[in-house]
Amino acid sequence: MLCQFSFQNFKSYRKETTFDMQASAIQEFSDSLIIKEKCSSLLPVSVIYGPNGGGKSNLLHALACLISTVVKPVHDLEKNRKSLILQQRVAAEPFLFDHVSAKEPSEFQIFFRTDEYEYRYYLAVSEDEITAEILDRKKIGGKKPAHIFYREVEEISLGPVLKKENVNTSVNSKMPYLSFLAINYNIPVIAKVQEWFESCIIRSYANPTAEMQIMISNDREFKRQILLLLNDMGIDADDYRFDEREKQLYLKRSIGGGEYELPFDHESDGTKKLIAALPVLLLALREGRLVIIDELDAKLHPKLLRYVISMFKSRKLNRYGAQLLFTSHDMATMKNAVFRRDEIWFAALDKDHSSELYSLYEIRREDNERVNSTAAFDKQYLEGRYGADPYLQNILSENEWGGEPKCPMAVTDDRISESDSV
User: Fold this and answer.
1) How far apart are alpha carbons 139 and 192 in whole angstroms?
2) Which residues fall within 8 angstroms of residue 364, CB to CB, at 6 or more apart?
3) Domain match, 109 and 192 both
4) Do 33 and 158 fall within a single domain?
5) How many other C-beta atoms can be found within 10 angstroms of the C-beta atom of residue 238?
6) How far apart are CA 192 and CA 77, in angstroms?
7) What is the pLDDT of residue 388?
């Protein structure tokens, strides 16, 4: 489960930016949180809003860059331990609107949790070469992190766990040491970390070719669940089949006592989107995976998008800690009846054309009060109160909100920090 992700000097993001899936101390939808003893509760869903070009997709690209950099070498050699659902490798590209940043590495740091441990993994990449890499872990409920390995350019320092394994410390400069260990050794701690990265699902439905990558499962129960959900969402379907010769998917329907098949190409865009997405979402719920989807709302009716969100917020359906992270332009779901304040994030460019990221929960008015949990989030966003929409600015008087909203990036005390946890 993803706890926190930080990065800097990547595409439109110049400064260090932190995205958090740890729940704040608020009461909204508390029954939907992913709870584990001795550690912070996690959010099952987060959404990023903002104008085109503001940096929404680049946040997901940064996370995809880290994941694909770790996973691709392992997958290329067919050493992966889980089925991969990655579209492609995302290269590390620095912020180019600054002469200094353009020559510096892109840096990524991720905190994630498995059954027994919390891990911190740090990676710095410059021109496809690894300049630094760190892996630590801490027992859930423990205080002191254990050092697994530390890499600075060509120098690699091993922690106690790896020292006794007699592992090789000579690795290609373009390959993460984590990937190298996963390929060449069967070390439990490395296998567990690698499996977590491999479990992450990355999809982009803004890309037309992605919609043709449909997962068809031979698992009857899995297929039954897909059909149940399609019907529950108002898409009448009795069955479906994939024709290997035609390379075409057919949906079967019973109408007026007769059975009819309609080719996938003839379905509506919304139906095609659901058929492409549902198997991925169900797989995540069944196995407790992280799903990252750019523009999940594209071509989906707002009610269907709400349904998808509710699947991850339901403890009955989401029993294994699956998480959904997506970007959206859909105002119909930016409601206090759908999201907690810490589940809504905004990405927008500052005056230096660098992206900034902040959550709705972090926004404060001049009186230092947070946005109320009962507020009309969509209305206030369109009025320019949240500072992430360039089209409708200064609608409210400065007397009411005191000018531009303050968006501090400080996290609350109960969240992970580099100094006290991994």
Assistant:
1) 14
2) 370, 405, 406, 408
3) yes
4) yes
5) 14
6) 18
7) 67
For residues 305, 308, 312, 317, the Cα torsion angle rounded to the nearest 10 degrees is: 150
pLDDT in tens, 295-316: 888 877 888 899 899 999 999 9
Whose structure tokens read 């043709």? 212
Is residue 189 within 8 Å of 277, Cβ to Cβ? no
> Which residues, 6+ apart, have CB-to-CB distance to 160 below 8 Å?
146, 147
Domains contained in the chain, number: 2
The dihedrals phi and psi of 5, each to the nearest 5 degrees, come to: -135, 125
Burial class of residue 400 in the structure, from the number of CB atoms within 10 Å of its CB (0-12 exposed, 13-18 middle, 19+ buried): exposed
Residue 262 lies in a domain: yes
Are 205 and 211 in contact by the 8 Å Cβ rule? The answer is yes
Looking at the fold, whether 260 and 180 belong to one and the same domain comes out as no
* One domain, residues 225 and 80: no
Whether 380 is in a domain gets the answer: yes
Is 180 in the same domain as 153?
yes
Q: How many CB atoms lie within 10 A of CB 379?
A: 11
In terms of pLDDT, which residue wins out, 108 or 98?
A: 108
3 state SS of 334: coil
Task: Look at residue 304 and give its three-state secondary structure.
Answer: helix
pLDDT tens for residues 48-61?
999 888 999 999 99
Q: Are residues 195 and 311 in the same domain?
A: yes
Distance CA 75, CA 79 (A): 6
**Domain at 49, CATH number:** 3.40.50
Domain containing residue 178: 2-200+289-401
Does residue 300 belong to any structural domain of this protein? yes
Please give, one letter per residue, the 3-state secondary structure of 352-393: CCCEEEEEHHHCECCCCCECCCCCCHHHHHHCCCCCCCCCCC
